[in-house]
Design brief:
By secondary structure, this protein is mostly beta strands. It has a domain of 270 residues. The chain is built from two helices and 35 strands. The strands form ten sheets. A five-stranded mixed sheet has the order 30-1-35-33-32, with no helix packed on it. A hairpin with a 2-residue loop joins strand 32 and strand 33. It is globular and about 60 Å long. The termini are far apart.
Length: 443
């Protein structure tokens, strides 16, 4: 099936679905639940990373911070309605080591699964009261979930050049390379940095990219022209790859062949998507963005970031949130996080979950069945597992860290459901400056 016919077929299918949804006032309805335990649970924390091992029911949790950064590793098993945590014993669990290098506890980092191993990138240690700084890291922790072996790598550059340590950056994985954008360094500088790390060689390099004009829904759209440019300095944001799963390969500047006839969904624009985060070079310039950006992935195309026009009501700008692509529903999912307090008693925490249909680029706010609303959370750990969002830890709306595990059952289509009684949002806070997870009572 040619791409043209594929697009035409799905355009007709999409129109029919939309007409049916309009006739029934259909919405996206998710189901949220909190998991109850009778066994060991990891300590409450923020800034950890949860990675799903593809093709299994297993997840690996690493790092995070409570009163101090953590260096332990735990495994979560999800089988049907049952969830169970287990401590992973390494060769020296009390002080994880790799050769002569001590693997440090960390938070504010990112991770990915590649070639049967899990890679954790960079991060930050606890605040040093004497130096009055938080030491950021520029190392990679590599964990084998089968043998439980752990190692440490320092990316190199030719000619020799130091890789700037960082936390709270955005990261994504393509082919055999991990990409990092923005973040905050040890001196609290907001970075204007886009780098790549080849996971075969561990060589890092700067990614050369350009900024393009907004990508409109229709040619000559006046609304698209008003969208802002891709930000130079950013932190607390997320990036995610949206591409056809059956492509032979997907690289930053090329894509492999695909049999469109085997695809169930139509993706209007394949690429790397970014939403939210704090933008601005200095603290005084910092502000939240609710613009959606895309770096389109096309054959022989150089990386180019640009705003992309959407329809519907976009979600609230936020940072330290979750952003994932849900392939089964062909939806970009934005959930949780925080915003700067408005000074009018409104909560800083964002409970709202929104989805973007990748075939029509239309936003929808998600509704929840029953009275089980998702919690007020930010800086949590999350992963998508089949048609579920798995959320662990984070900071709650009462400014307490949590060790709770939440499961959110997603829907791949709009349906009708009797509107449940509304549930109140999180508590309100007046302190405008407490917008980082280090602001904990224990420190």
């Amino acid at each position: 099936m040619s791409k043209g016919n594929f697009e035409a077929f799905h355009a007709i299918k999409r129109d029919v679905e939309e007409l049916n949804a309009q006739e029934t006032n259909g919405q996206y309805w998710f189901q949220a639940s909190e998991v109850s335990y009778r066994s060991w649970v990891p300590q409450a924390r923020t800034g950890a990373v949860l990675i799903h091992i593809p093709g299994t029911y297993r997840f690996v949790l690493f790092g995070g911070v409570n009163s101090e950064p953590m260096d332990g590793i735990a495994e979560l098993s999800v089988t049907g309605a049952n969830c169970k945590w287990a401590i992973i014993e390494t060769k020296k669990h009390d002080a994880l080591t790799a050769g002569n290098e001590k693997i440090k506890g960390r938070y504010g980092f990112q991770g990915c699964y590649y070639n049967s191993k899990i890679y954790f990138f960079f991060g930050c240690q606890i605040f040093d009261k004497l130096k009055k700084e938080r030491t950021c890291l520029n190392e990679i922790v590599i964990f084998d979930p089968c043998s439980h072996e752990i190692s440490l790598k320092f990316p190199f550059h030719r000619p020799e050049r130091m890789l700037n340590p960082r936390k709270y950056f955005a990261g994504f994985f393509l082919h055999d390379t991990y990409y990092c954008h923005g973040g905050i360094d040890t001196s609290a500088k907001i970075l204007d940095s886009f780098i790549s790390i080849n996971l075969k060689t561990f060589q890092w390099s700067d990614v050369k990219y350009s900024r393009g004009p907004p990508l409109p829904m229709t040619k000559g759209s006046a609304n698209a022209a008003e969208l802002e440019d891709f930000p130079a300095h950013c932190y607390g944001h997320e990036m995610v790859v949206v591409a056809y799963a059956n492509r032979e390969y997907v690289k930053i500047d090329s894509v492999g062949p695909i049999d469109y006839g085997s695809e169930k969904h139509y993706i209007k624009h394949e690429g790397v998507y970014m939403f939210g985060g704090v933008i601005g070079k200095t603290t005084s310039e910092s502000r939240l963005t609710d613009t959606l950006f895309i770096m389109q992935i096309e054959e022989d195309a150089q990386p180019r970031w640009r705003a992309i026009e959407t329809t519907g009501k976009p979600p609230i700008g936020r940072f330290h949130y979750g952003l994932d692509y849900y392939p089964q529903g062909n939806l970009l999912v934005v959930f949780g996080g925080r915003r700067f307090a408005a000074g009018n008693g409104e909560s800083e925490f964002v409970t709202q979950i929104a989805v973007l249909r990748m075939d029509s680029l239309q936003w929808f706010e998600v509704f929840f069945k029953g009275n089980n609303m998702p919690p007020d959370l930010y800086n949590f750990s999350s992963a998508i597992y089949d048609d579920e969002l798995i959320l662990f830890g984070g900071m709650q709306g009462n400014y307490r860290q949590t060790q709770k595990l939440h499961r959110i059952q997603m829907s791949d289509r709009r349906t009708t459901y009797e509107q449940p009684q509304s549930v109140g949002s999180g508590l309100a806070f007046d302190d405008l400056n407490k917008h980082d997870d280090e602001c904990m009572a224990s420190q």
